[in-house]
Specification:
Blueprint (H helix, E strand, L loop, with lengths): L5 H21 L6 H12 L3 H4 L1 E5 L7 E5 L8 H18 L6 E6 L17 H20 L6 E9 L5 E10 L1 E4 L4 E4 L5 H19 L3 H13 L6 E3 L4 H4 L3 H9 L9 E4 L3 E7 L6 E7 H9 L10 E5 L5 H17 L14 H9 L14 E7 L3 E5 H6 L19 E2 L8 E2 L5
Antiparallel strand pairs: 1-2, 1-13, 3-5, 3-8, 4-5, 4-12, 6-7, 9-10, 10-11, 13-14, 15-16
The structure holds zinc ion (2 copies).
Length: 432
């Protein structure tokens, strides 16, 4: 975290520390162990004693020392958001296939339906994502004149720039799809916008009518058909995404996984009211907004998905293992169309704690500042299990008395740590 973001982070924590309890009294639906846990974890984030840590020491000269606190990974934690984004980018970019042309499509929901999609459970959110994929298959098939199965990476996003609840889908879609009859890949140069709009409207409204069987929904659906005769708003990135953006996933991450209100945007908190700013799509200007503290907390927590909810989903050929089989055929088909875009998609490995630290400070955190030797794990404190590794103890027990080769300590830096040979393996919360 940069020094500039620190004061805002402290404000953010203070707001939750002072008002979370009061907020849950007013909004009892958030008074659950799940939300309380997210808040508690977020408040403890960065505190080595509460969250656990790994301590490194220089075993060469004994001077160098470095403490790495565990991150909380709470979806409410703005401090962990950056790590989350990095991991997200890595996950998505590994699912993209080199040479395949993808397009970025946004499927929106008109304002009058947003409340319907604000459900505490998975009643509509999962079907919402699924019907996005169905809609695109439908459009592709209609354009081609026979059934096609595309590949889609669907990401649900619930907030607009000011943090309000505006659910919509970001879709990374293959341009065209698999034709099961002809057993070949069928490339589509474009998707007709008016058709996409109308189809999206039909698929979304049909899904809502089937899932939420109330009078009100029936009325809303009718209103939507009369009010939006052109269908619902969809955006299609004009160019083939990979040719324009070196990394589609990095480009998407900006839109999709950024927190509702980023740390840098909180300007003021006086104990009752919070002021923050954002760049408005409408006016293209920086807008400032002051809201009372419960509204602020509400805007943050309304974007937390139900426990276990998958925000990124893979559909169609993108989802199946047969993609590997289809890949050659897809490449062949695309080569005929316009030549393969070589290395269009960069595969990005997630950065380790060490790399992130080095990038932001220019210093290798695990190199001893005194003698430049690599430091080693000295002590690991797990938030639940206490001290699970103690090098000093190991030395006392005669760890180095034998000539047995020592393992490379850096290889233990993953999510799972094996403290001692034959010891227990524990899953650790993420590392900073
Ligand atoms: Zn040293
Ligand atoms: Zn955190």
């Amino acid at each position: 975290m940069t020094a500039a973001a620190l004061p805002a982070w402290n404000l953010f924590k203070q707001i939750f520390a002072e008002h979370w309890e009061g907020f849950t009294r007013v909004h009892p639906r958030y008074h659950t162990p799940y939300y309380d846990g997210l808040v508690a974890k977020m408040l403890g984030c960065g505190d080595p004693a509460k969250m656990g840590y790994i301590e490194y020491r220089c075993l060469h000269c004994g001077q160098g020392k470095h403490l790495v606190a565990m991150s909380c990974k709470s979806s409410l934690c703005l401090r962990c958001a950056k790590v989350y984004v990095d991991n997200w980018v890595s996950q998505v970019s590994q699912m993209l296939h080199e040479g395949v042309i993808y397009r970025h499509i946004v499927l929106t929901v008109p304002e009058i339906l947003r409340k319907t999609l604000y459900q505490p459970s998975n009643i509509v959110l999962s079907p919402f994502m699924r019907c996005g994929a169905r809609c695109l298959d439908d459009v592709f098939s209609r354009v081609r004149g026979k059934p096609l199965k595309g590949g889609y990476i669907m990401v649900i996003q619930t907030h607009g720039r000011n943090g309000q609840y505006t659910p919509h889908l970001h879709c990374i879609a293959t341009s065209g799809g698999w034709d099961p009859q002809a057993q070949q890949w069928s490339h589509l140069e474009y998707s007709p916008y008016p058709l996409l709009r109308k189809k999206w409207q039909w698929h979304l409204l049909t899904m809502l009518r089937q899932r939420v069987k109330t009078q009100e929904i029936r009325r809303l659906v009718d209103t939507c058909y009369t009010r939006y005769r052109e269908g619902f708003v969809t955006n299609v990135q004009k160019d083939d995404v990979p040719s324009r953006y070196q990394s589609l996933a990095t480009y998407l991450a900006k839109y999709v996984v950024s927190p509702p209100i980023s740390l840098r945007r909180i300007d003021r908190y006086d104990g009752h009211r919070v002021t923050y700013h954002y760049r408005s799509h409408k006016s293209e200007r920086v807008e400032r907004e002051t809201v009372d503290v419960y509204t602020f907390i509400g805007r943050m927590v309304q974007h937390v998905f139900p426990k276990g909810f998958q925000r990124i989903r893979y559909y169609g050929v993108q989802a199946t293992k047969t993609f590997a089989r289809l890949k050659g055929l897809i490449h062949e088909a695309l080569a005929k169309v316009k030549g393969i875009i070589k290395d269009a998609i960069k595969i990005i490995a997630p950065m380790t704690y060490r790399q992130r630290y080095q990038r932001s400070t220019g210093r290798d955190p695990l190199r001893c500042p005194a003698c430049q030797h690599e430091m080693e794990v000295w002590r690991i404190l797990h938030p639940t299990y206490g001290v699970i590794h103690d090098e000093l103890e190991a030395i006392r027990r005669g760890k180095y008395a034998s000539q047995a080769p020592r393992g490379d300590p850096t290889s233990r830096l993953g999510r799972t740590l094996w403290p001692t040979p034959g010891g227990i393996s524990l899953s650790m919360p993420g590392l900073w």
